[in-house]
Amino acid sequence: MVKFYIDGKEVVANRGETILQVARREGIYIPTMCYLSKVKPIESCRLCVVEVEGVEGFVLSCQTPATPDARITTDSKELYEHRQNIMKLYDVNHPLECGVCDKSGECDLQNKNLEFRVDSQEFSARDQYRPIQDWNYLQYDPSLCILCEKCVHVCNEVIGDDAIEIEYGGYKSRIIPKDAETLDCTWCGECVAVCPVGAFISKDFKYSANAWELDRIPAACAHCSASCHLYYETKHSSIENPEPKIYRVKNEFEFETLCGAGRFGFDFENREAKKDEEAFKRAIEAFKRADTIKFTSFITNEEALLLQKMKERFGYRLVNDEARAYQRFLENFSQYSGKSLYTPSLYDIEDSDFIILMGSFISSDNPAVRYAMTVSQKRHRSEIVNFHPVEDDLLKPVVTKFVKHEVGSEEAALSMLVDILCDEDAKKRAGKEWLESFDIGYLSAESNIGEEEIEDILKRLKMKKRRGAKRFTLILGEDLYTHPRAENLAKLAGLVDRFSEFDVMLIPPKTNTLGVALICDLDEEEGEFSIGYNQKGDFTLSALGDGDLDMPALNQQEGTFTNIDRRVVPTNVALPYEGYVLNDIAKELGVSDKEYTIEYTKELPKEKGYKEIEFDELDNEFLNDGTEKRGYELEIKKVNLSRKNIEPIEELPEFNGTVIYRCEPVLQFSPFTNKAHQLRTKGKLYASETFLNDLGLKEGDKVNIQKDNITISIEVERDGFIASGAYLGRFDKNIDTESLFKDYRFTEVKIQKV
Amino acid sequence: MGSKVYFSTWKDEFIDNRGKPREEWAESNYNFPVQYNADIESKAFIGWAGLALFDEDVDVIKLATEYAYQYQVYSEACGRCAPGRWGGRILYDLFDKIARGEGEWGDVEHLKEVSSTMIETSKCEIGKTVPKPLLDVLNYFEDEIRELIEQKRPSKYYNDENINYISKVTAPCMDACPSHVDIPAYIEGVRDLRFDYSVQATRKTMPLAHTCGRVCPHPCEDECRRANLDEPISIMELKRVGADFETDHGLFWLHPKEPKPLNGKKVAIVGAGPAGLTGAYYLAMEGVASDVYDELPVLGGEVAVGVPEFRMPVDKYNVDIGAVGSLEGVNFITGKRVTADDMREFEKNYDAILIATGTRISKKIRAKNEREEIRGYWPAINFLDCINLYVKYGIPAPKEILEKNNLPTDKPYVDLTGKTVVCVGGGFTSLDVVRCAVRANADKVVMLYRRDEATIIKNTTYEEYHEAVEEGVEFIFYSAVEEIITDENDNLKALKINRFELVPDPDGGRPQLKKIEGADFVMECDILVPAVSQSADLSHLPPEWEIELTSWGTIKTDGKTYMSSRKGVFAAGDCEYGPMTIVNAVGQAKRAASVMSRYVQSGEITLTDEEIMEDHLRSLKVYDKKEKIRGWMPGLPRQKGEILSVEERKHSYLEVNLGLTQEQAVAEAERCMRCYYIAMVAV
Fold first, then answer.
1. Contact with chain B for residue A67, Cβ under 8 A
2. CATH class for domain B7-163?
């Protein structure tokens, strides 16, 4: 803690905090053009220089930590003049195209010119030919670029794509794809978000609206369990059509990061829906007849509660395989960790010194987790060990050790971790049978995880601890929840959580998996007649607009999600919806007595950690220092520990022949992302170079994928980011991949070229 | 030092000889590059601290224009901050406008305004200092400027294409580094969390990034400008941060650029130590293949077998060696001692030869009864070979050597249990000897040094000396061995040791060491390791080549091109300079490789302008200890990495220095003031 003074006000800096950080936290204004809270100070604009008593010259406030009793002055005539001069320099040759520039009205250059009263371009230089670059979803105009470097820093330090860099050359400097002819990245679009001017823009948004015409609706992203905070920005569709539509998505980029699906996949609304009374009647009939409701986790907590209430009233079976697998995993985990929920959040991952990741293809499963790992690597040089059968080249600059294991060997891998991470008590708890089954030679040989690799992990762990490491996180993903040995894996994970310094995170696979798993009492088996909600049923309710009765999509609903941070976050209505909602059915069935779905927010189950807070009372903002004030965090309850031993390790399964994986390509999560006009694409079999070579295939080939009596005809696409293997996604609803992957994310298939 | 100048505003100096005949010109205090090279005289020098004219007929307006131009166009280092990027552009545009005869008075005012903002707010010193000589021109040559503006005509030599303007970017630390590593760039890589850039910046002139991020004596830190404000930057430690990123993520290897395709030329390199490896690396970068020969069974030379594992883990060194070996055209041949006959063959079969054999003969301590055959007399180089080859590579110590030194031969390694080891020395090698002796479990380890503690620290590093003390090495200063006492079987028994004191010279000269009469004592010991210095083994030089040697028995070169007296035969590293540092060997070999890459093509010995300027700036000296620093908050402490505790390290070969944590490294990198400067000569 350092006490010092800014403009006469006594302030206190935490360890390592810079003058600018303290000033912002205290609400003291210092102008900047290049400062971006979530990355290291960039130091290119020099506007944030301040005076320090007793120090000759000006000091850069963004990068200078405060020293005790320093007296800082943030503004003076001289500072004003230099800042004004810097703005004049920024204006050299800056095109005067504000009238048509996308950024106009929310442009830092405009704002600062106004602030420093620069009303003419005093200097000019000979102009140069600088063509506009067209990079897929993005456009980069070097003449508009002020080279603040925010885009480059965020791409490297937060995203981890490290796809762009500065081509140095004084006033000729520009942003270029790093080591590549054209940009090839994960298209998160953060470069657009952080660009203070109109240099990096979304091609889709270009020339479509002025910033000041758009309405901003604060919401939570509906695509994955990170449920990132975002704003849908809407305006009428056209002069002829007063209906609002979403023009773009923006985010609180100073503190939060959005992936490309969140940013570009916004128009998944169920637009045509009307109140079809006939269909509604049929729906009520169907509900009366049904014994099962099948649904996905792309619903709000409140909807989940309605489903649960229906179940309680009518005894429906609630079937959601993905959430049920997660629920079981969480329950088994809890009985061995002693906690109702996992503890780490994305912030904890960012702060981790040692991370082990297992069972997730993280760059498409959950980009937010990947970004948090990138931050931890960059900030703390954390060790990041990734256990997976498929190596993801995207993670190469982040992961410090990749352990490739045989498909299906997760039980061996996790057991080996229990062995090295946990103390003796854990092994006692696991029990004699488990310990006897722990034959490291066998496990190592069958899983292909070398004993020396495990020793190396231990060595790295010891060194990290030797260097004062404080936070250790084991991140587990969906491969484990659907694993035939999921129950034992969950228990082993519980042991790690309880008996080692590692905290275990269980990534919820879908947007509201955690919410559904906590709120709904889920069943294993379907009955005779099912209502499908965003799933094919005997009667189908669909927000995709392809069912028997329309439902609102998640950008047309208000309510809450329970996200990966165990946080209950609010989302709001971005677009009108004129059809029926689940609450209408519930009302009709006599289950609901409330007018609006969000009246259920305060009724979410307290025994699961929810709080009795009205929807309208939920916070939804970030403070100046980056503190997230969104909704609330679930309370973690103590859980009675199971007295049962862990089951002995089973013989490891063998996967022979052609094995494929189930995961989505980057930018896709579900049919909802695939409905968005910018992301819409046909599902393919995405294959690594080696996979193509082994099967004698090339990009563009058509193949038949066969398993049992299922055949899928599909085109092959090369994925340059994976080192081996191939995968299928579920985002294309025209391709039924579900039946291929019943139990586990890997499956043996036959592939034949057509 | 000092030459007559026509006009100078360099640093605190102001010399104005305008209107005076040449013989009355005052002398400057500074060592300007008046003579550019053997054939060319310079006309003017302009740089971060002013300008100096060596001739009355210099077009200063054009000089200033060119300086602004060089800054803007050639400076790779810049373009990172708003004031520097655009300010520099405007400086050039407006100066050029005046110089070509289109200027107005308003331009002069704009120049002053932009200069002032650049000086106060630029990111690095290059932006802060470029305006200085330009303002000097505006102030002291106002009449000339007025004339151009009023008469609307171009400056005198505006269109003269015979005048060349040669520039060079430097920094005090870069100038002090014998390899001229682009230190601010690799520090910036750490600061920006772009560690790949960091190691790539290092490897531009220093392929051994892992190695010199660990064992460099960092002369750069003695010439770090930050020391003028508080404490110097921990420059060496930051080099390691970028290098470790390469290994952490298996990104082998991060080269500074794509090597040129092989051009069919090939050289022989004798010695695979730092100099030989560096030579091979930069020759390969230029498309020249090489065969690198070494008599040792392993690659790396003295750094591999001399520097102990606890200071320089061989895994890390091997990454650097791997980087060299990864380049096309580099071929290593180990276990091959090159003879004079081989050399004669090499001359026929290769396009050039680089000798980089180091200094691998331990010098004697010049005591009575000093003989190689004494049992227990064990020269430092061989002592370290025996220990390190086992520790690092598992190669057993030769039985006959163990036996000769009365050590157990049933173990494959050197076991000094129960032994008293005395080392005579005071440099890096001797510290390595005593610290290895501690780890080989010696009973007692003593270092005898002729001078005092301050000198040993100066010769090595503060850290290493103190680590040795902590590990239990006993240092006896102002001491020397007078006689070696042996028994009837020629076993080492004891040493007769003299003590000295420092006596001030009454005439004000250097104090002299004087023996203290009656202070002699006898110390029993089992092993005596002479580590006073090493000399070069040049027995492989064919005598008929008559290669010229220096008075201390190393190969003589001009210290700029590193060619020996025999055409096509080059020498770099310790065999040229005498026992010195890794970074010195790398710097020499880098230069030699550059000269050789041109020589094999053209048969000519040439230096690039960059290299000529590098040498000029070194003799002018970039660092100014007295300069006052502006625009930086003082009092931010230098970050210190953690080292293993004495208990952890005393009996292990684990790397002692754990390096900086990421947080420390970034905090340290943020202290760097990026003291880039640009200098330019008009010829």
1. yes
2. mainly alpha
Cβ contacts of B630 on chain A, cutoff 8 Å: 56-57
Domains B7-163 and B362-534 share a fold: no
Q: Where are the beta strands (DSSP E) in A492-649?
A: 502-506, 530-533, 539-542, 549-550, 559-562, 567-571, 620-622, 628-630, 632-633
CB contact under 8 A, B248 and A397: no
Pairing mode, if any, of strands A710-718 and A702-707? antiparallel
Q: Hey, is B180 helix, strand or coil?
A: coil
Q: Closest Cα of chain B to A212: distance in Å?
A: 28
From the CB of residue A277, how many other CB atoms can be counted at a distance below 10 Å? 9
CB A574, CB A217: distance < 8 Å:
yes
The letter for the amino acid at A591 is V
The span from the CA of B386 to the CA of B21, in Å, is 69
Cβ of B82 and A125 within 8 Å? no
- Residue A147 sits in the same domain as residue A235: yes
Interface test with B, best of A89, A128, A375 (most B CBs within 10 A): A89
- Which residue in the set B116, B662, B670 is minimally distant from A381, CB to CB? B662
The full set of domain ranges for chain B reads 7-163, 266-361+535-607, 362-534
pLDDT single digits (tens) B408-436: 999 999 999 999 999 999 999 999 999 99
Omega before A434 cis (within 30°)? no
Q: Which of residues 147-206 of A touch B (CB under 8 A)?
A: 147, 149, 153, 156-157, 166, 168-173
Could you read off the pLDDT of B166-213 as tens digits, one per residue?
Answer: 999 999 999 999 999 999 999 999 999 999 999 999 999 999 999 999
* CA separation for the pair A56, A78 (Å, rounded): 13
User: Where in the sequence is the domain holding A359, given as residue range(s)?
Assistant: 324-506
Closest CA to A741 of A695, A714, A707, A718: A707
CA gap A541, B353 in Å, rounded: 82
Last residue of a domain, one of A37, A56, A75: A75
Q: Which residue of A has its CA nearest to B655?
A: A463
Give me the CATH topology for the region B266-361+535-607.
Answer: FAD/NAD(P)-binding domain (3.50.50)
Q: A364 vs chain B: nearest CA distance in angstroms?
A: 21
**β-strand pairing of A71-73 with A2-6:** parallel
Q: What is the mean pLDDT of residues B236-255?
A: 94
> Looking at chain B, which residue has its C-alpha nearest residue A164?
B194
- Radius of gyration from C-alpha coordinates of chain B: 28
Are residue A622 and residue A532 in the same domain, yes or no?
Answer: yes
Distance CA B47, CA B52 (A): 9
Q: One-letter amino acid identity for A222?
A: A
Q: Is the pLDDT score of A373 beyond 90?
A: yes
| A292-295 and A317-319 strand pairing | parallel
Q: What is the pLDDT of residues A42-100, one digit of tens each?
A: 999 999 999 999 999 999 999 999 899 999 999 999 999 999 999 999 998 899 999 99
What's the pTM? 0.95
